[in-house]
Every structure is written in structure tokens, then in C-alpha cells.
Design goal:
Length: 370
Amino acid sequence: MIGILIGSFFGVIILGGAIFMNVSPQFGGKPTTAQQASFKELSYYDDGKFQNQVPTSMDMSFGETVSTMRDFIKGDPSRQPSHQLPVHKLDSLSIADRSADEARLTWFGHSAFLLELEGKNILLDPMLGESPSPVPFFGSKRYAADIPIDVAKLPHIDAVIISHDHYDHLDYSSIQKLKDKVDAFYTPLGVGAHLAAWGIDEKKIHEMKWGDEATHGGFTFICTPARHFSGRGLFDRFSTLWASWVIKSGSKNLYFSGDSGYGPHFKEIGEKYGPFDIAMMECGQYNERWENIHMFPEQTVQAFLDVQGKLLMPIHWGAFSLALHSWTDPIERASAKAKELNVNMATPRIGETIDLNQTASYTTRWWEQQ
């Protein structure tokens, strides 16, 4: 009888989870059969999965898995700020009233940005929700009590660029609030299926493979490789592509790394598309147990040199705790390495706007408690 009860308990949990995944919109959609057939023509798609350019093992031993779970459950106070973080508030009128020759970049924390360039508004990985999880109650919560500007107050958005479909980069609630004010969405292959499932007009969705280029309003968006993975559910890992992005306009050349472990693709991108006026480089949520898919801060600085950047902006930190390091470890280690290698690095407050036409470094150590 005890065995029957235990089996029934786990059966109910599994059934409930399956039902939730099938009815909850956060999980998104799936590439069509025709799309999957076209993926087979790519050299980096095999056995129904996208592949990295270089071997990238993500396997952990049973012991490593158990120790990782234990470390997450145990917790560590240093993984969260002990004080209220300063958030610079954006004024919607200042965005609307800017001149066409202004070039501005505003960080929303983690990997989300608003780029204002040549009269256009472009959002990068606009995860503007409270928690990067399909079940927010159980997920990591945003450090700051607020974001720089409410989504409802954002102006018309010319384009949204998405690096991959993980919850801390592609957020259902944010897309629902944004979708009626966006002209076009640019994503790696397969990611558009999520947007279509969420009610985005398919004419607005532009899926791209590595090396593809698209033009939009005087800009060129280039989908470039990254070393990572994808998936929003239990069984769809590697089913959509992940990417970094090159953003070119008449006056500026920018690089957005998305999520990536260190690899030869950075140097290849720098040689082909660099140098870059600013490079937004992943720096956070790393661990020696998954070093192939997330860089350590010292690697972030080296990758910046590889892509031939002029100004480094460390990203993927400052908003959520998704790894085991302290919340300031990424920026402290990156700052030390940047100083050692004489790298110009920007550390703006969340919501502080970088003027891309100026040479100021924005080096306030805002994360330190005053």
C-alpha cells in the first residue's frame, strides 16, 4: 500500500507537470516540421539538435549534480545585494525628444538594453519581468525593486533583437507588453516559434542562421555564432539556435555577445566584422561545472580583445542570481582584469545612459554600498 501511495504521488506530480507545460504559454511554441527539415541542411545541426562550433560538453557527473543542487539549496547571502540598488529612471519624453544624431545605450540590468541610434529605438534581449522562470514563485527575483522605465511608457520600438530562448533573455510577460509597439523581431532559427505562439504577427518575425544579414531602417543586423545552448522545457534543449549579434548603422558598429562560453568564434567575429565602438559581453552566472557555456570574467575581457572592441560593457549580471558566485564577483573580477590589460570598460548604473558619441568610461562603482 505504501508503494502504491508513493507511486501515485509521483505520478500526480509528473502528470501535473506535463499538463502545466502543455497549457502554460510561457513555454512558447515549437519549430514546424518544415523548419526542422530545413535545419538539417546546416553543418551545425545534427540528430535533431543544433550544435556548437567546437565540442561543448554540458554533462555533469551524478556527484556534481548532487553537489550543485545542494549548493543552490543551501544558499549564500553574498549572492544577493544587502542594500537597495540605485536605478536611474528614464524619462519617456527624453527618448521621444532626442535628436537623430544622438547615439545612446541604456542598460536595464542583466542583458537587456535600449539602443537609441540614428532616430531608431532597438531593444536587445528585453527581459523586463520580475523573475526569469516559467514559475516566478520559485525563480530568482530581480535585485532592484523597479526597472528604469515601465514597458507601457516605452516609445515605439523599431526592432527587438533576441539572442536565444532562455527565460532570462526571452520573457513571455515582457513580449506581451511590447508586441503592439514593435515593428520587427530578429531571432536565431526556431526562436520565432515562441513569438508566433504568443500572438506576434509572423510578418514581423525574422529568423536568421549564423552568418545571415538583414537590413532594417538603415541598420544591418548580422546573426553571429555563440557557444551556448537553448530550450525552455524539459525536452527541447538544443531545439532552437543561439547567437550573438553585430549591429551596424551608418555611424556605429556594435557587438552583443548574448550568452557564450569562451571560444574561437570571438576572434573570427572580430576579424570579419570589427572593430566595434562598444562590445556588450557576457560576464556572470558562471561556474567551473559549466565553464563551456558561460565565460569567467577574465575570459570576458579576453573575448572583448578578440572581437576588437573599443569600449567594454560587461553584461549578464546585476539583476538576477542564476549561479553560485557572489553578485558582485563578475564586475570585480572583470574590473581587475580590464585594469591589468588597459581595457576601457564602462560600468554604468542600471538605467544610466551611455553616450556613444563621447569617450567617457562611466566607471562609477555603484554596486558598493554607500
